[in-house]
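Task card 7
Instruction: Convert sequence to structure tokens.
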Amino acid sequence: GKKKIWMGQFQIVIEKGSLNMPQNPSLNNQLLGLISLNGNIKNDLLTEVKILESPSVLMEPFKFVKNQKKDLGIDVSQLTYKDWLNANLKIKLIEKTSVLQIAYIDESKNLIIPALNKISSSYKNYSIKEKANSLVKRENYFDALLLKMQKQSKISMNKYQNFSSLHKMGNINNLPNSKFSTNKTLKNNEL
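Output:
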């Protein structure tokens, strides 16, 4: 007779954009040059789906299934990742949502749940790596922004001091250079 085909599935929600921007509007304006805040969400989701079905994310589950089938005496010597993806996995975005449905289909009933668990683990690991990468990128960006602002501040301070000195306006504390600072020192000593 005809072999039975078994299927199991689960769903995940793809977060729209892995970089959650701070809620400070002025900061967001500064970041616009580096990060597109108004990206095409549909394209982002489709790209994310392609990544989630790629060997870089699903190679471990593929190897696991291949080894399990081999242990069952099934010839998997010709089984490629692409063949496995096309024959055993159905990964689709549920229309008008950011929900991804992952279905695993196999003739071996006992492989369904372990395969889905491996796929789920791979997605969790990918998600953790992506969040870590996002945090590192964000931290590097803010470090660079801080350095840039410190340099800009130093340049502005030098310009201010040169201007103040040229026009005899006093030092950085808006105090004249000579008597006033001496008087201040005397007053502090008198206390």
